[in-house]
Amino acid sequence: MTETPQNAKVVFQPSGRRGTFPVGTPLLDAARSLGVYVESVCGGRGICGRCQVTVSEGQFAKENVISSAEHLEGATEAETRYATLRKLPEDRRLSCQAKILGDLVVDIPTDAQTNRQVVRKRAEAKQIEADSAISLVSVSIDEPDMETPRGDIDRLRDALIAATGLADLVFDPALLPGVQVMLRKANWNVTAAIHQDLGTLPTLIALWPGEKKAVYGLAVDIGSTTIAAHLCNLQNGRTVSSAGTSNPQIRFGEDLMSRVSYVQMNPAKLPDLTKAVREAVNALVGKLVGDVGADRSDVLDATFVGNPVMHHLFLGIDPVELGGAPFALAASDAMNLVARDLDLELNPGARVYMLPCIAGHVGADAAAATLSESPYSHDEITLLVDVGTNAEIVLGNKDRLLAASSPTGPAFEGAEISSGQRAAPGAIERIRIDKETLEPRFKVIGVDEWSDEEGFAEKIDSVGVTGICGSGIIEAVAEMFLAGLITEDGVINGNMAARTTRIRSQGRTFSYSIAEDGVEISILQTDIRAIQLAKGALYAGVKLLQDKLGTYHLDRIRLAGAFGSYIDPKYAMILGLIPDCSLEGVTGVGNAAGTGARMALLNRGYRREIEQTVRDIEKIETALEPKFQEHFVNAMALPNKADSFPHLRSAVELPEPLQTSSPETGTGERRRRRRRG
Amino acid sequence: MTETPQNAKVVFQPSGRRGTFPVGTPLLDAARSLGVYVESVCGGRGICGRCQVTVSEGQFAKENVISSAEHLEGATEAETRYATLRKLPEDRRLSCQAKILGDLVVDIPTDAQTNRQVVRKRAEAKQIEADSAISLVSVSIDEPDMETPRGDIDRLRDALIAATGLADLVFDPALLPGVQVMLRKANWNVTAAIHQDLGTLPTLIALWPGEKKAVYGLAVDIGSTTIAAHLCNLQNGRTVSSAGTSNPQIRFGEDLMSRVSYVQMNPAKLPDLTKAVREAVNALVGKLVGDVGADRSDVLDATFVGNPVMHHLFLGIDPVELGGAPFALAASDAMNLVARDLDLELNPGARVYMLPCIAGHVGADAAAATLSESPYSHDEITLLVDVGTNAEIVLGNKDRLLAASSPTGPAFEGAEISSGQRAAPGAIERIRIDKETLEPRFKVIGVDEWSDEEGFAEKIDSVGVTGICGSGIIEAVAEMFLAGLITEDGVINGNMAARTTRIRSQGRTFSYSIAEDGVEISILQTDIRAIQLAKGALYAGVKLLQDKLGTYHLDRIRLAGAFGSYIDPKYAMILGLIPDCSLEGVTGVGNAAGTGARMALLNRGYRREIEQTVRDIEKIETALEPKFQEHFVNAMALPNKADSFPHLRSAVELPEPLQTSSPETGTGERRRRRRRG
């Protein structure tokens, strides 16, 4: 017999979605099971603070729920820590920490992630001066008159031309069916939205009766894994809401190339992939406008960035040409399109600006990241790297800018690694190896303490150690190298088995065991090879661009994307993933592509800036460069066979080169990898 | 106790509408009570033959009906006569004659009304110099290249800009999904169609591999009764095929105002009216391209004209504002639109040019007729009249041009006339009355001989004399006036009964009998009144414009439209339908609106010409003019109470005025008629 209820009803606002959950379920899990979007980037560790919610207290007759803040379990240690450090408002809870005890009505505040993003993302703090393609003009127009029987929309157009001086103003024909009712309802006083941008005529695209205060734009980064969207006020340039969702195309293929193959095998299914991404964007828009109490019809402009395959699939273009040389894009230049032609559920007159693609493997996302970091505006030489399964590389300064891509493969995302997994609770994300004892200690996503700290043992039980994520594998290989467990050629040194039982024979090669309670987590020789191939490809691409630029000096390295934000620059450099540079010059820049999309949305000057930059940028096709292979072979070594890494050596003591004669380092394995999305 | 059922179930196909009706109900009445459109113009007299139906025999389980042809009463005398004269197929019945005896499933064949109609709209022979909005450019483009990874369509655009000098060339995004396959199939040699017109950017709209020879345009005149379309070669300006069809909107209302009312009562049905006309256009296009062995995708541009209600319904705009003062148009100016946005099945990139409307009752059809006749280019003063149920009037010369409409009603089309019918075989179209014997002789559509000529008697049997059409009624009234059978006030002179038995008493008024073999065809006093009201309204509108212009001198009168082409100018003038003018100056100009549509299709100079003309033209709203009523009252007389018609009098001997005091000429009847479509 139990006296406390085993289940509780939870209603999420503003969506109104509801469900019944076992007592003890974390609120975040409940939200996700209902498809209610709550942002969380720390893997539910109570760190990022994006999953904030409030409890609406009282009796909700319609919902048949009596909701109380006490129906959530008290704050966990992590939540208390967050509240102390970041000043969590009293009525707020972290939904990843708060467990359901009884019936609840939960509200997801709109400001949580937005406010927080300013703190977290450097680019978010960047104030974008608004000069969007949309301007609002309020006019009064003459009533119709039998003496001068001009059409209602023509008199409206005349009034707008008089008010704006735009003699070549046209109107979107989508306005025709509704214009008469609108003008009469408005008593002939309306606010008009006019779209003006290069390559289009100034166009009246939307109308409201009377005064219209706020109109919005949408900036979207379509990644192969995640779609991130920002809603921005087009007049003051502020980002008012952000949201992300998985790219539903993932069911057609996990990486880009598998999606291209899917379309190649099933050409009739192309519309399904296009529809999937457009529907996901439409769902995000619903959430974003709901967050701020706006309407879809308040969204008048949108910018989209993505890699070339995402860009083409979004536009309904078969990406098959991108699957093989010469990797021909159907369209590369920036485009102004009409949102309804793309089935986007915004204002019927809304426009879309597609940022330009740089090359067949260097997409509009790289262009947007370039816009965000603007290496072309600086004297300093910047290397901008967006590490995905394809690394997109931009190098240069205001005098000259080069771009290339390099096929790194998915190893950096934890794929092709024996114990690899995506960054999620249970994944080892950081690791240190004692040079004397050769014992590892590590940090797991979901547990604050390192594995050798007090409290870890108790807490790890609820999370488990399930694998090793991208940043973990980087640190593991680098630390093994620093500890002398692997040679500069990347071979696990079997001789070290004499010093530690963690080095174990695996037939012709050896492994290093990190954890063995429950799941056995080891670094195998093949794991190190996968990392070497990936970092070798990336480094070789960078080196090629440095050859072209004629200098190996670097002032700044900017690591974009999720992976770039979470890896430790020092370990990336020890591994030789990035070239030598002052460590202070290396920073993660988060979702730089999304920032670039917002810049292009909010200010047309940035559109012209990136269009000109993409025209000027020198595109290097690494596959065509004879030196790529040589750079690649050198870059297989840790950190590099040819390059000396003076900045790194002044900061970190690297082991003396120790030659091995293992056949594993033979050139047979140094093959060019096939391109992966 | 009754043995025969008192009610019967009737199902109409293809609509599936069904109802239960008392035995003895004429099938046509049953159809109408269910809102099933069955055409009929003879007033249910079994003459026009348009109301044909077939009975589907058998057991209809779904409908729970056993249908048999025997469930219709046998043929009436009228139906037997029609069947003999016009060869009614065996399975066909005239629904106005056939009475319901039992359960029925009735099918309304689609060919009945269309075949029967004399589509009098045809392309005129006028040679139009081609300078269309479409130009063809053949280019070779560079193959894609990894060194310069520009999009395929962007390289194509560059090549076209180089070939044409059109720096601001854009492309239709509809080309994107197919461009890569097209370019490869074409081995990089393509012909591009570029659209250039005012108010749009030059746009690449279509592509073909290799050379493309012939591309076409479509010129369409959407009349309320008939849609006429011409297919023209855009390069040499030749009209290669023409076709016409009934406007299927007729089932929503026979005239314009009844369609406006229909939409007002059933706003949700607006899309049905729009869809009906667009589908009819698409069907015509299929026929036209089939005629010349072309494909729909060869059609790249289209022009449309129509009265304001047709114009709005075609564009999907609710015409309700056109139903009452101030008759506000949603849009009046010329427009460049995209054909696919109007659901037109042409090339996916095809464009549409809508000619401008002049005023709420003076449509793009009047603008096109004005373009065709170009009174604004001449010193001579021209009166251009398009007589429909609304007369559209344009008056002036190169110094000044005025336009108005006048609500003539449908009398000129044979409606509201007791023996009236549309122009079709069997209709009396010409008539002469001997001034001595007062005997009529006449000509019937479908028989070459006059009724008093040899051979008429034999031939008329196959056609019959079924009614009197618009041109016939004009001549009948005018000839009655010349023969002294009616006074200048339009009263049938009962005293003439002493001289001919054809003048017969009809209670307080009299009638004149024209034919009485089979169907009795007479002119009643009410018929003359209907004609007087119609011609009075038209003349008053013209007179008002003459007042405004400040001169009553006329060099040319141009009668446009089907009616204008078939009436004899002399009789029109005797009736006082048109003002006095040298008879040689009066000509019918056929489907001038269609000609104007073709001109605007084939030469952009004409687009600018009519846009400027419509801007400059002075629009007179007759309803606002105090003198309209005075002109109208004077114009009720034959030919006119106030105006002397010197040119007419020098050519024709008019009877001396003969005053009557009949109360029928009282002003009560001279009321302003409500506008009719």
Kindly list the characteristics that best describe this protein.
5 domains, 677 residues, alpha/beta, six-stranded mixed β-sheet, Ubiquitin-like (UB roll), Nucleotidyltransferase, domain 5, homodimer
Which CATH architecture of the largest domain in chain A would you pick? 2-Layer Sandwich
> How far is the N terminus from the C terminus of chain A?
56 Å
- Number of structurally distinct domains of chain A: 5
Please state the overall shape of chain A, judged from the principal axes of the Cα atoms: globular
State the helicity of chain A in percent bands. 25-40%
Oligomer: homodimer
Summarize this, please?
The first copy, chain A, is of the alpha/beta class and 677 residues long. Helix content of chain A is 30%, strand content 23%. Chain A has a 6-stranded mixed sheet, sandwiched between helices. A 6-stranded mixed sheet of chain A has the order 28-27-18-19-20-29, with helices on both faces. A 5-stranded mixed sheet of chain A has the order 2-1-7-3-6, with helices on one face.
Write the layout of secondary structure elements.
Two copies of one chain form a homodimer.
Chain A: E1 7-13, E2 18-22, H1 27-33, E3 52-56, E4 58-60, E5 65-67, H2 77-86, E6 92-94, E7 104-107, H3 111-120, H4 122-125, E8 134-140, H5 152-164, E9 170-171, H6 176-185, E10 189-195, E11 203-209, E12 216-222, E13 226-233, E14 239-246, H7 256-265, H8 270-291, E15 299-306, H9 308-314, E16 335-338, E17 351-354, H10 364-373, E18 382-387, E19 391-397, E20 400-406, E21 427-433, E22 440-444, H11 456-463, E23 467-468, H12 470-482, E24 503-506, E25 509-515, E26 521-524, H13 525-549, E27 556-560, H14 561-566, H15 569-574, E28 586-590, H16 592-602, H17 604-616, E29 618-619, H18 627-635, H19 646-651
Parallel strand pairs in A: 1-7, 9-11, 12-15, 15-17, 18-27, 20-29, 21-23, 27-28
Antiparallel strand pairs in A: 1-2, 3-6, 3-7, 4-5, 8-10, 10-11, 12-13, 13-14, 16-17, 18-19, 19-20, 21-22, 24-25, 25-26
Helix pairs in contact in A: 10-16, 10-17, 13-18, 16-17
